[in-house]
Amino acid sequence: MPETHPFDDAIALQWQFESGHRGETSPAYANMVGPFGGITAAQTLNAVLQHPQCQGEPVAMTKNFCAAVADGAFHIIARPVRTNRSTQHWIVETIQNGECVIAATVFTALRRDTWHAPEHAKPEVPSPADVPLRGGRPRVEWINRYEMRFIEGAIPAHWDGSGATASLSRLWMRDQPARGLDYPALAAMADVFFPRIWRRRATLAPAGTVSLTVYFHADRDLLVTTGTGYVLGQAQAQAFRKGYFDQTAQLWNEAGDLLATSHQVVYFRE
Q: Which pLDDT does position 1 carry in this prediction?
């Protein structure tokens, strides 16, 4: 029997009717404290996609971290609060030890053919084959689950306070080992970017995402077309002030299709 991909193991959920889905954190996606935020986003979305009442494809997801997610078991309770002819609205809670640690909303819809046009074009960058693999030994395990090729704005090599004048990072990425792209994987990739304050200041300041929103522009056919190819990710902050900053991100496939955009608010301490 073939082995399952580490990502599929990590987002696997057991349906338990009234109590929702049960899952376990995966050591393969461990972060400094608890699991990688992207994998919890994928688990949240997967609970909706696996729900027997789910209609359509995800269009948007907002995930608020109410408390740190601990290693171990959790329950995800996903419930549709409104179903219309072509749209559906969900409230999703992740519960550990009887307390809510993640509160999320998900918006799904039956997509229809309309006029479409790109507005945020893929930047001109070298092809993945022309960009070296990320070097060095990662501080956390989840980074080993991704093939990363930084074009600019890699994680600082020296934590010396030198920093950069802008927080922009660009990189080619894909699952390691390669895996066909789907919505949970795309949601996880939207959170691959390290905190922008590390890029700006080259100081290992404690930081963590408080709220993450992902907008899915790709339909399932486009995800299938993208397949196991590389995804170009770009992220940059807009302001740092009084212990919080935000960062926006865009994800394109190699053909230049904008697959998803995201926005998150992050706290930091000094």
A: 56
- Report whether 191 contacts 173 (CB < 8 A): no
The phi and psi torsions of 192 (rounded to 5 degrees) equal -70, -25
**Domains (ranges, CATH) in the chain?**
6-111+127-268 (2.40.160.210)
Radius of gyration of the chain (CA): 18
Instruction: Give the angle 214-163-165 at the CA atoms, nearest 5°.
Output: 75
What pTM was estimated for this model as a whole? 0.96
């949601």: which residue's tokens?
187
Helix (H, G, I), strand (E, B) or coil at 213: strand
Whether the pLDDT of residue 51 is over 90: the answer is yes
Closest CA to 144 of 134, 130, 152: 134
Q: Residue 35 gets which letter from DSSP?
A: B
Q: Which two tokens stand for residue 145?
A: 């689950």
Q: Which helix (H) or strand (E) holds 186?
A: helix 183-189
Q: In one letter, which amino acid is 142?
A: W
